[in-house]
Design a protein that fits this description.
This protein is an all-alpha fold and 195 residues long. The protein has 10 helices and no strands. Helix 4 packs parallel to helix 6. The mean pLDDT is 88.
Length: 195
């Protein structure tokens, strides 16, 4: 459907409209979600979306931050971690200036940054970024939120990679406990934390 919209918008008098940017964003996001990794179509759509939004809205707009975050996800999925890091950092910079410091979108961006750093095997930097996300999540949702458990599992994984197995075990057990209490004993996510 978004592809049909793009075809129609390409024929419009102003093909680089915000409507075009939104359609391209939807295609880029759908391609990333559909395949769980990036492809050339998603990357081209996200890059064009980013360019249009920057020209139309200015470089500091929150929709530009969303396009940077999408570029970061897609680039991370194509093993371009350094480029992904640049886009995710830009998204984080924009969101921390424009949103409340404890906004969950800021937490999600910290988590995305940590994921890129984790993929680069920079576990200390990943732990620091996950720590920011964890702080926001605990403050906003308390200590029993499944999103908090996911962060604890990621922190546990990084801690394990750095060789602190006792701390990793404590973090993973806390994550499993949250999953079990929040989602039930046989919840899918509980199994993910155990792996």
């Amino acid at each position: 459907m978004a592809s049909a919209v793009v075809a129609r918008l390409e024929a419009a008098p102003a093909p680089d409209s915000l409507a075009m940017a939104e359609a391209l964003f939807c295609i880029g996001q759908a391609r990333w979600k559909l395949t769980s990794y990036a492809d050339g179509v998603g990357l081209r759509c996200a890059a064009r979306c980013l360019g249009i939004r920057e020209r139309q809205l200015g470089a500091d707009h929150l929709d530009v931050a969303a396009a940077h975050a999408l570029m970061g996800r897609i680039l991370a999925g194509t093993d371009r971690a350094d480029s992904a890091l640049t886009h995710v950092r830009r998204a984080l910079d924009l969101r921390t200036v424009r949103l409340a410091q404890d906004d969950t979108l800021v937490a999600d961006t910290w988590s995305q940054l940590a994921g890129v750093q984790h993929n680069r095997r920079d576990f200390r930097a990943a732990l620091e970024a996950y720590g920011h996300a964890l702080f926001i999540r605990e403050r906003r949702h308390g200590e029993e939120d499944p999103a908090l458990a996911a962060l604890l599992a990621e922190i546990g994984n990084c801690t394990m990679q750095l060789g602190d197995l006792d701390q990793a075990r404590q973090l993973l057990e806390r994550a499993v406990g949250i999953y079990t209490r929040a989602l039930g004993r046989d919840a899918y996510r509980r199994q993910g934390a155990l792996n």
